[in-house]
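INFO batch 0412 | record 1 of 1 | parsing
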Amino acid sequence: KEIVEADKSLKFETLCHSSMPQGSAQKNIIRNVLVLRELGVPQKLLLPLLISKFQPVCGKEKFEESLKKVVEMGFDPTTFKFVEALQVVYGLKEETVEEKISVYKSLGLAVHDVWSMFKKWPNTLAISEKKLTQKFETLKKCGLLEDEVRSVFKSWPVVLALSEKNILNTIETFLGLGFSRDEFGMMVKRFPQCI
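INFO prediction complete | emitting C-alpha cells
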C-alpha cells in the first residue's frame, strides 16, 4: 500500500518511516518505483516488476546497473518490452549472458544478431540451450536450411517461445491444406509469424 501511495503522491519522504532500516527492501522498492515513474514507466507496467520472481525493484546496485543497461539499449520505458528487458537483465548473471551468446554463436549467429533479437524479444536470452537447439532442429525439419533458420530467428525471435508440438502441428495443417513442404518453407522464410 505504501508503494502505491508513494507512486500516487510522489512524497517519498513522508512515506519512508524513520523506523525503516537504511536500505530495506521496502525503501528500495519505493525509491526504484519512483525512478521508474520518472522515466515514464506507466503504473500498469509496474505490477509485473513488483511480482516478478526476480523482484528487480527490490535491489539497489543490481537494479541500478540493470536499469542503466536497458536504458542504454534504447528500450522505450512506456512499453512492456522495457519491463521484460529489465526482468531478463536483472535475472541473469553476466557469465550466464555470455554462455547464452556462445550458444547462439555455435548456431552461426553473430553477437550483434543476438542483441538485435534481444531488442525485438527480450526473452531471447532467457531461452535454455536445449530449447534453442531443439527449435533450430525443428525448423530444419520444416524444410528450412540452416541460413534460413537463422534468418527466421533474427526476424521473429518469438519463434523460440513456440513449442515443438505447435510448430509441427502448423506444418501438418499447411500440408493438409495442400501446400508442399517447400511451399511451407517459402512462407516461413517470408512470413515467420505463420508458424
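INFO post-check: The domain at 94-194 is CATH 1.25.70.10 (Transcription termination factor 3, mitochondrial).
INFO record closed
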